[in-house]
Amino acid sequence: MIGMSSGKDSNTVAALSKLATDNVLGVVMPCDSVATDKQDALRVAKQLGIKTVEVDLKNSYSTLSQSLEKGIGVPLSLMTSANIKPRLRMTALYAIAQEKGYLVAGTDNLSEAVMGYFTKWGDGSFDFCPISDLTATEVVELGKELGIPKEIIEKAPSAGLKQRSCLELMSLMATLKVKIW
């Protein structure tokens, strides 16, 4: 099972998973997301022949954020707010996995791991991760080989984040070529 987004990592992992087994479930989890992101994820899932379910996390995110702000008496920082989303996604993925008997596929690549760009107990949590030893550049190359549409595989990374500093960091990771021995 994989959390489907419009990015190169999740779509490459989805394609690899489908090569390994027909029993793949894609979970689309919009959470104040751009509409085209959901459309891209569903398009690739259809192209790959992956069954999908949708779990809209917008209300859960809003309720939790408001409750936290009320409880601690201050507005949440941009980074805290941004990290809530992948943690909610992982909660949804593991709930579905438990009910349906799936393993959760990770989508973190080596460039993200080296940079520390993942959310603890969010997108950094998974049962297996087939791209964990590949740099972001290698994921792009593999995605192209697996037939992921060019406009998706070459799309600028966003992870649903709006902060400029996060986008700049993610762009750096897309070009980072790190080898760990």
UniProtKB/TrEMBL annotation:
One of its GO terms (biological process) is NAD+ biosynthetic process. Keywords: ATP-binding, Ligase, NAD, Nucleotide-binding. It catalyses: deamido-NAD(+) + NH4(+) + ATP = AMP + diphosphate + NAD(+) + H(+). CDD domains: NAD_synthase. One of its GO terms (molecular function) is glutaminase activity. Residues 2-163 form the NAD/GMP synthase domain. Pathway: Cofactor biosynthesis; NAD(+) biosynthesis. Pfam families: NAD_synthase. The keyword NAD applies. GO terms for cellular component: cytoplasm. Its EC number is 6.3.1.5. Belongs to the NAD synthetase family. This is NH(3)-dependent NAD(+) synthetase. It comes from Candidatus Desulfosporosinus infrequens.
